[in-house]
Amino acid sequence: MNTEDLYRIYQQFPFVQTDTRKLKKAEIFFALKGEHFNGNKFAKQAIEQGAAYAVIDEAAYAIPGKTILVDDVLIGLQQLAQYHRSQLSIPFLAITGSNGKTTTKELIHAVLSEKFKTSTTEGNLNNHIGVPLTLLRISPHAQIAVIEMGANHLREIAGYCEIAQPTHGIITNCGKAHLEGFGSEEVIRQAKGELYDYLRAHQGTAFIMWDYDYLRKMSRGISGTIKYGTNQEAHIYGIAVKSEPWLEVEVQQGLSGGSLHTKLVGDYNLPNVLVAVTVGKFFDVPDNKIRSAIENYVPSNSRSQLLKKGTNTIILDAYNANPSSMQLAIQNFEKMQQQNKVLMLGAMAELGKDSIDEHKRIVEQIGNSKWKAVVLVGGDFLNLKHPYTSFETSEKAAEWLKNQNFENTYLLVKGSRSIKMEKVVEELN
Question: What distance in Å separates the CA atoms of residue 222 and residue 326, rounded to the nearest whole number?
Answer without folding.
Answer: 32
